[in-house]
Amino acid sequence: MSTYTQPIYVAAIVFVILAWLLFVPWLVYTYRKYNYLPLSITVITFSFIFYFLAALFLVLLPLPEVRDTCSIQKPDTQHFSLIPFQFVVNTFDNSGIVLSRPSTYMQLFKQPSFFQALFNFLLLLPFGVYLRYFFPKKKFWKRALVITFLLTLFYEVTQVTGIYGIYNCAYRIFDVDDLLLNTTGGLLGFFIAPAVLALFPSKQKVNEKANGLLAHDDVKTMSVLLAFIIDLFINKVISTIIISMSYANEVSVFIVNTVVLFVVFFVVPLFWKGNTFGTKVMRFRYESKFSKAETNKRLFKRFGAIYAMYFITGLARILNNSALTMDSDYYKATVFLSLGAWVIYFVLTIVLLIHALLVLFSKGKRRFYFDEASDLYTTKKD
Question: pTM for the complete prediction?
Fold first, then answer.
């Protein structure tokens, strides 16, 4: 049993790492495309990633302990099995099963070759279900057949080539029965998929909801937050590059960050019709619903609200990092000042986190403080 559980365990670990790395890019993609997070598409996509990893690792693991696999194999080792339905012969050979005696059929479940064949049949059955989601019409069964066959052929070629030369000899055989069983299982999954996919909204319904949100010019708060995170990331990259090219201390870093924040959150949207880099990625922009001059004024207020948080935290960080010798007359004052700065930094961070959660779960009834303070609104209209 460990032959099957160990690869799945490894796949689960890799999946958790990938999911952590892909989650924010996935949010950006889905909110950019649909303007909301379709739970069904998220579940199907991430479950497919886990399934694909599990299937791949089940095929490849465990790996040989040495790269020179030829040295641990006999000279007459067979790397190919090209006789179709050989698994049937292996299952019934010396099994004690007699077709005319049903009482002997239970012996079938004691045959390793039977379980190996069953595993190969079931391996790509879920893959057929996923294919049906992407090709919802039954007439695409031939396309599903070809894709499934190519996938199982990829598995077999990967094995027989020793993962394309990593191992100098194949450590598993190329079996034509695997091709037949994998492909048949995938095709069956394609036909029974509607019974499973009925639990999820169709892609058509997801697109209809997305079009409805677009028609109502509804920008979700998560889109606003993701745009803000993208802008902060760009701000950090630009600041880091500038700081790395010059002498840096606490004050110079503070000044550079101030200038870059001013450019990213005010100058750019000022000359880009209310777009920041983040809002452009998320396909919306800011406007005041009044004159252009009023919009520009409110863009500056938005920058001011954002910068106020940076100014307080940046100043607290500078004070917290200040250091004087114990002989200094101001040493005690510095200690209390650093402690107070740390408390301010910590409290402000918690307040901003709570604020973000309240806005995200308010179902559009709240706005982020920088949008509320500037009285700017989001729109998807050009």
Answer: 0.81
